[in-house]
Amino acid sequence: MRLLVNTTVLAFCIGTVCIFGAVAVGAESVPASSIPTADLLQPASFAATLQSNSGPQPLVLQVGFRKLFDEAHIVAAEYAGPSDDSAGLAVLRERVAKLPKDSPIVIYCGCCPWGKCPNIGTAFSALRALGFRNVKALYIAHDFGTEWIEKGYPVTKGG
Amino acid sequence: MPRLPRLLGMAALCACLSMRILAAEAAAEPAGRLNTIAPDFTRTDLLGRPLRLDQFRGRIVLLNFWATWCGPCIEEIPVFSRWQRQYGDAGLQVIGISMDDDEAAVKRFLAKHGVPYPILMGDAKLGESFGGVFGLPQSFLIDAHGTIVFRSVGEPNIEALRSQIKGLIGIH
User: Are residues B51 and B2 in the same domain?
Assistant: First the structure.
C-alpha cells in the first residue's frame, strides 16, 4: 500500500515538474485558442486606445519574429520574441521581470493566421504563469499586414 | 501673458496632429506592389549559388516568402515542389525566400525535406521592397515580363494559384 502511495506521489511530482519545466524552457507550444476570449483585444479598439492619448498606455510587446518586427510594428511596441523558443521566452521574461504584476501588457504576433500562430498562446501562458493579471492578447485573425497595416493603424517602420 | 499657455497648448495640439498624420502615412503602403515590375534583387541561395530575380525574365516566377515556424507555409512546400517538377519545363520557376531569423533552422529543414527549387534567406529590406511581408505565407506570381500579377497572403487558395500559373504558362 505504501509502495502504491509513494509511486503515485512520485508520478505526480514528475508530471508537475515536466509540465512547468516545459513551459519554463519553451518546449511546449501553447495554442492561441487557449487564450480566454475575455483577454483578447480587437485591433480596431486597440488602435483607438493607442490614438486616444488619454490615460497611461500599456506596455506593448511583439512576441513574434525579428524580421517581421524590423519591417514594421505597432507604434511604441518593443521586441520580445519569439515565444516559440526558450531564448525568445527568456527575452520576454527579462523584459517584464521588474514590472508590478498588475501592469497593463498587450502582446501581439500576427506572423500567421491566429489558429496557427506558434507564439501568442505560449507568451500569454508564460506571462500568466509569472503572475501578471492584466495581460491582453491582440487578436490578429489573419496576419499583421492585413489586420493592422492595411487598416491604416499606427505603425513604426524599422527595427 | 494669458496668451502664452494658449499658444503652448496650440503648439502641443499641432505636434500631436502631425505625429498622427505621419503614423497614418507610414501605414498607407500599397498592398504588395500588384501590377508593377517586381523589384530586382541579388542573393546567394542556401546551396551557395548566386541568384538574381531578373535572370528569370521570360519565365513565370512563383516567389514564396515562408518560414520553418509557419504551419501553412510548410503545408504549401510539397505542392510547390510538385509544381516545380510538373511545370518547370513549361516555364515555371519557384523561388523560396525564408524569413526565418535562424538560417541553421532552414538548412536543417532543407536537409530533411528535399526542395527542388532555390531557397534563399530574406530580410526586412527584401520584404519591404515587395510592399511588406508582415505575415506568412505570402506568394507573388511574376509574369514573363517581370510584372507582379498575383499575390496570395495567408493560407492559400491552392487551386486559384494553380489556375493562375497554368494560365500564364499556357497550359489548360
Answer: no
Cβ-Cβ contacts under 8 Å, A143 against chain B: 134-136, 153-154
pLDDT digits (tens, 9 = 90+) for A40-77: 999 999 999 999 877 889 999 999 999 999 999 999 99
ipTM: 0.77
Q: Are residues B50 and B128 in the same domain?
A: yes
Mutate to test the interface with A, among B75, B123, B134 (most CBs of A within 10 A): B134
Same domain, B51 and B68: yes
3-state secondary structure chain B: CCHHHHHHHHHHHHHHHHHHHHHHHHHCCCCCCCCCECCCCEEECCCCCEEEHHHHCCCEEEEEEECCCCHHHHHHHHHHHHHHHHHHHHCEEEEEEECCCCHHHHHHHHHHCCCCCCEEECCHHHHHHCCCCCCCCEEEEECCCCEEEEEEECCCCHHHHHHHHHHHHCCC
Residue ranges of domains in chain A, CATH in brackets: 29-157 (3.40.250.10)
Q: Which residues of B touch A66 (CB under 8 A)?
A: 101
**Same domain flag for B57 and B12:** no
Check CB contact under 8 Å for B28 and A152: yes
Tens digits of per-residue pLDDT, B75-114?
A: 999 999 999 999 999 999 999 999 999 999 999 999 999 9
* Structural domain boundaries, residue B150: 31-169
Q: Tell whether B12 and B36 lie within a shared domain.
A: no
Q: Is the pTM of this model over 0.90?
A: no
